[in-house]
Specification:
α5 packs antiparallel against α9. The protein is globular, with a radius of gyration of 21 Å. Helices cover 32% and strands 25% of the residues. The strands form five sheets. Strands 16-13-15-14-18-19-17-20 form an eight-stranded antiparallel beta sheet. β1 and β2 form a beta hairpin. The protein has 13 helices and 20 strands. The chain has 433 residues and is an alpha+beta fold.
């Protein structure tokens, strides 16, 4: 064990753990927990640090799961795999491809570990699809009392429904079992459009017509970039290497970083720069492996606030945000991302029992305007918005409890599994009480 300053990917959260442990097995995790109990210290597991909240910050023992990675078991007839908690998605996706399998849905970033993605409710998009946690069929937890607990829908079911999106509050996830699907290709079509058309009904029609739909609105303009992805039997036809480098590296990362640096020093230039940015990416169409289409590189550092609202409220929320930006002296260089998801039965899923629209607002990490996040949060809360568990928000347990019908059930499971709060930190104190 050694001591260090921990910082998340965005650099907006820090912690000073008293000790750091790097276990390579579930047995070693249990040994760390036993020492922490003996020494009266709390424990927090950490993955890639891609959450924007302080969910993994601790002054106790930081449990780095980087050495616990890889697929441990495969049931090809059932299309199920077991995966160690620290496995990053960028390693898991091609490993599943080698088995002829894939996760049915993914977010647009693959830097997270599988346990971190599940714990915070990473979702993706698709009006008939579910988030990543809905693919979890089993979870192995190292619990506060020194046990290794396997839970699933058939075994310790209440623990399972809580642990699917467990927030790191129930124990240390050491392994997950995932229900996969046969590997599939996506036909990707990306183009431009007008925000007014999407808010007047095109967004709902596109979400219904395509397997995976999302759009990006560029504040200070009426322009949007749309992404329509559909499962296909067409032959693989990926983007030429030069085109992928031009769009995803030079324009979406290199030039966009420069735009944000200029905007941070001269905010009044941002509306003009936003108009340039909204026209930088041209239409494109290609066919590739699902995970190559879902996930794109994100090298420009930012902080993010995202809320899940009832899908019927999509136009009202985005329209109100547009009106607020137009009426206030703010300069927003990052596009607003809008996605959709079908309702599910995962207790703390942001899509629990309602068809959902996700609206995400981003700010460059060097220039954060609190008023922008505050305004967006007020708008989302007016529509029963549920904040993404891994992204910035100000809600407390009292605010969250009415939004989740199984919130008290989750807290009851926490009381059973961690009565002495071995896994607590100030962030969990705020959101769970």
């Amino acid at each position: 064990m050694s001591r260090l300053v921990w910082e998340n990917w965005a650099g907006n959260q820090q912690g000073l753990p008293r000790a750091v442990a790097e276990p390579s097995s579930a047995a070693e995790v249990l040994a760390v927990l036993a020492r922490a109990r003996r020494d009266g210290r709390t424990v927090k597991a950490v993955g890639s640090g891609h959450s924007f909240t302080a969910i993994a910050a601790t002054s106790g023992v930081l449990l780095d799961l980087d050495r616990m990675r890889g697929i441990t078991a495969v049931d090809l007839p059932a299309r199920r795999v077991r995966v160690l908690a620290g496995t990053p998605l960028y390693e898991l996706n091609p490993a599943l491809e080698d088995l002829g399998l894939a996760l049915p849905n993914l977010g647009d970033i693959d830097r997270q570990t599988i346990a971190g993605a599940v714990a915070t409710g990473t979702h993706g998009t698709g009006a008939r699809r579910h988030g990543v946690a809905a693919a979890v069929t089993g979870v192995r937890l190292a619990t506060a009392d020194g046990s290794l607990l396997w839970c699933s829908a058939e075994e310790e079911a209440d623990f399972f429904w809580a642990a699917q999106v467990g927030l790191g509050a129930l124990g240390v996830v050491t392994e997950v079992e995932l229900q996969c699907v046969p590997a599939f290709l996506l036909h990707a079509r990306e183009g431009s459009g007008r925000l007014e058309d999407l808010l007047e009904g095109e967004a709902h029609r596109a979400a219904a017509a395509h397997d995976h739909f999302e759009f990006y609105w560029f504040p200070h303009t009426s322009r949007v970039q749309t992404k329509r992805n559909d499962r296909t039997d067409l032959p693989v036809s990926p983007l030429p290497r030069w085109r992928g480098w031009l769009d995803d590296e030079l324009l979406a990362n290199g030039a966009f970083e420069l735009l944000n640096r200029v905007g941070a020093r001269a905010p009044r230039t941002i509306p003009s720069l936003a108009r340039v940015s909204s026209r930088a990416l041209s239409d494109r169409e290609y066919v590739d492996r699902s995970w190559r289409v879902f996930c794109t590189p994100r090298r420009v550092r930012f902080v993010e606030c995202e809320y899940a609202v009832p899908r019927a409220a999509l136009a009202d929320v985005v329209g109100a945000l547009r009106d607020w930006v137009e009426d206030h002296d703010v300069a927003v260089p990052f596009p607003v991302e809008v996605r959709v998801l079908a309702g599910d039965d995962v207790w703390l899923s942001t899509a629990y029992q309602r068809d959902t629209a996700y609206v995400a607002v981003h700010q460059y990490h060097r220039r954060v305007q609190p008023a922008y996040f505050d305004a967006f949060e007020r708008i989302a809360r007016d529509h029963a918005g549920r904040p993404h568990w891994g992204k910035l928000h100000t809600l407390t347990a009292d605010d969250l409890a009415p939004l989740y019908p199984r919130f008290d059930d989750f807290r009851a499971v926490r009381d059973l599994l961690d009565p002495e709060r071995l896994f607590r930190n100030p962030h969990l104190d705020r959101i769970l009480g």
